[in-house]
């Protein structure tokens, strides 16, 4: 612990430095030994300093002294005898052009100009005995309203309180005419309390209050000082000069995080506008007033990048998790006092998906804000030199992967979007042989799963063909039997000759049954031996072999 002290008249100064893991300083203002009370008044107004908490019951001598803020010694002001609740003798005097008076209850009355700031001592004596001394610190507060009322609609109203001495204020805030606390910047080293009302309207008419608590007083004692604000509803402020930042062209995958920047200005409030692709209408989607603590937004998944620190300091930027439809033109405007700053952001959003069919897997990627897009193309990641066929329409490009997959066609396919400024973004789709299950990187959502490759393999086609071979002969036999029974199936011997196949001595419309039996029949095939049975040359089933 380090302790030092010095005495100037009856004015006590103390500085204490305490260190125990961390260090802090107790100033004389916080120590509370320099004065009995603190009185804060508006500059250039009348002030009354009381000497007694309760009037004395006997005759006493009251002496008032002053120690100006620029001096280190006490100067005599006035003295008077206090007898039976009244003072007599000298009741007024001048010092450095300032007039002081002692009232009947021994209070000191004067005008609180800037030169009157300092400490005041009231000493009470009875004979040669000093009964009590009361030291009062006089602190001044100066309130300013800029611009001077009446204020123009849409202009920025600045409310400022300047406290002297600067270190006397322990806490303070500005309160609106409706009773709401405004965000207030407190500078303890300068003793200032600043608040603003951006884009003022006629509803902002009324009385505004600066509430201050000072060191040394009771913690519940708050000093209040008021100003009146009027608004001229017939005049509207216009921002003539707007400073424009360098336009930004950016691209992002759908549902990934992208930053929309605003001018790097410690502003009072910010407005974010959005113009969707292929539209000429600007829409206000976000507004933030850091002084009134008001936030309004109409677009989901849009946030201030750091509302706790950046927004409080007036440095604005936004985080957006865009869907495909959220691409477009974003304009951020930041306002500081009567100045405006603008920053443009053009955002292209890329989104991909996959759609399977019976013989192919179609990979598509869609994109918005085409005005800044240079090119979009599909590539095979394992072999970028391979040329892929793709179809392109406005805002969409599609390539196809043949099914079933092979080692040459499985793997990662990338859709790359290039902006005119050279920036790019890539959508990656991974197709595997075992299970066509795509994964997208780095976007947070995945396209729908594709059926396994075996579901569309050649096996299903072979099975269907075999079944067809089995059904055709069965249907033919059924039809032939039906026609034979009804006597309609009639032919001539010439038919037998034209359809016969020679195999040794035996003629048959199809083949020699003995030869066929020695061969391995195809799975599911049906063989029939047919011979003429009569003069009508009607064929009859003799034998069946499966």
Can you walk me through this structure?
With 546 residues, the protein is mostly beta strands. A hairpin with a 7-residue loop joins strand 25 and strand 26. The relative contact order is 0.07.
Compact summary:
With 546 residues, the protein is mostly beta strands.
Number of helices: 5
Query: What is the β-strand count?
Result: 42
Give a short account of the largest sheet.
10 strands, mixed
Query: What is the quaternary state of this protein?
Result: single chain
Strand content: over 45%
Structural class assignment: mainly beta
Q: In whole angstroms, how far apart are the ends? A: 112 Å
Q: How big is the Rg?
A: 49 Å
What is the typical, i.e. mean, pLDDT?
75
How helical, in percent, are the residues? under 10%
List segments where confidence is low: pLDDT < 50 over at least 5 consecutive residues: 1-33, 437-471, 481-546
**What is the global morphology?**
rod-shaped
Any descriptors?
546 residues; mainly beta; ten-stranded mixed β-sheet; 5 helices; 42 strands; 9% helix; disordered N terminus; disordered C terminus
Detail the topology: elements first, then pairings.
Elements: E1 2-8, E2 11-19, E3 23-26, H1 28-31, E4 37-42, E5 46-49, E6 60-68, E7 75-83, E8 86-88, E9 92-95, E10 98-102, E11 108-111, E12 118-126, E13 129-146, E14 151-153, E15 157-164, E16 169-175, E17 185-187, E18 192-197, E19 206-214, E20 223-229, E21 231-236, E22 242-244, E23 248-253, E24 258-261, E25 269-275, E26 283-289, E27 294-297, E28 302-304, H2 310-313, E29 317-320, E30 328-336, E31 339-356, E32 360-367, E33 373-380, E34 390-393, E35 396-402, E36 411-419, E37 424-431, E38 440-441, H3 458-485, H4 493-499, E39 501-503, E40 506-508, H5 513-518, E41 527-532, E42 539-545
Parallel strand pairs: 4-13, 14-21, 22-31, 23-31
Antiparallel strand pairs: 1-2, 2-3, 5-11, 6-7, 6-12, 7-8, 9-10, 10-11, 12-13, 13-15, 15-18, 16-19, 17-18, 19-20, 24-29, 25-26, 25-30, 26-27, 28-29, 30-31, 31-32, 32-35, 33-36, 34-35, 36-37, 37-38, 39-40, 41-42
